[in-house]
């Protein structure tokens, strides 16, 4: 059971590409979106594609969970914000709650960032990437993942966003 977490980045518009790749590789997939990412995605189409509702909010206490438990998680279109909050142990959204818990559960975790070079140059980002890697998260940057783009030019990189590298990385951790 693969959870695909997507964030409020232009890459979220194409998260269905990763869903398709994962399903073709034999994964059952659920999509979790950060609350801000819901403005970037088509929740109904993703729900139809996966067979599960897209979740972006915590369920009510005592309510049954509509999703099966994850055995692996990919964060595709991992934003600067999500990477930094995840490394800091902040779980103020369902997505971050699942990610922070995933480290403690020892789940295979892959992050494929989508951010610009100015954000990547911020000292907090490098610290966060190092902390996540030390915690066992495979963060795909540079030649082995995503090279941060020129500010305000990210949408131009969408046709070449390396969804396939995220899938290969999670399968290598499986």
Task: Walk me through what this model shows.
- With 174 residues, the protein is α/β, with parallel strands linked by helices.
- The chain has a single domain (6-57, 72-173), classed as 3-Layer(aba) Sandwich (Rossmann fold).
- The chain contains 7 helices and 5 strands.
- The chain has helices at 15-24, 43-50, 80-88, 94-105, 117-120, 123-134, 163-173, and strands at 2-6, 29-33, 72-78, 109-113, 138-139.
- It has a 5-stranded parallel sheet, with helices on both faces.
- Strand 1, helix 1 (15-24) and strand 2 form a beta-alpha-beta unit.
- Helix 1 packs across helix 7 (163-173) and helix 3 crosses helix 6 (123-134).
- The model has no long low-confidence stretch (mean pLDDT 96).
Question: Tags for this entry?
Answer:
Rossmann fold, five-stranded parallel β-sheet, 7 helices
């Amino acid at each position: 059971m693969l959870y695909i977490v997507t964030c409020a980045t232009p890459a979220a518009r194409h998260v269905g590409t990763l869903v398709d790749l994962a399903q073709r590789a034999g994964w059952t997939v659920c999509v979790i979106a950060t609350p801000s990412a819901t403005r970037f995605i088509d929740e109904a189409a993703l729900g139809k594609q996966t067979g599960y509702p897209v979740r972006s909010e915590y369920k009510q206490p005592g309510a049954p969970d509509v999703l099966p438990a994850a055995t692996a998680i990919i964060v595709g279109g991992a934003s600067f914000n999500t990477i930094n909050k995840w490394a800091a142990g902040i779980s103020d959204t369902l997505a971050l709650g699942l990610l922070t818990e995933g480290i403690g559960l020892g789940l295979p975790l892959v992050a494929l960032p989508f951010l610009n070079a100015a954000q990547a140059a911020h000292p907090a980002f490098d610290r966060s990437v190092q902390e996540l890697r030390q915690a066992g998260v495979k963060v795909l940057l540079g030649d082995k993942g995503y090279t941060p783009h020129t500010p305000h030019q990210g949408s131009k990189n969408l046709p070449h966003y390396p969804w396939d590298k995220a899938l290969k990385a999670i399968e290598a951790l499986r």
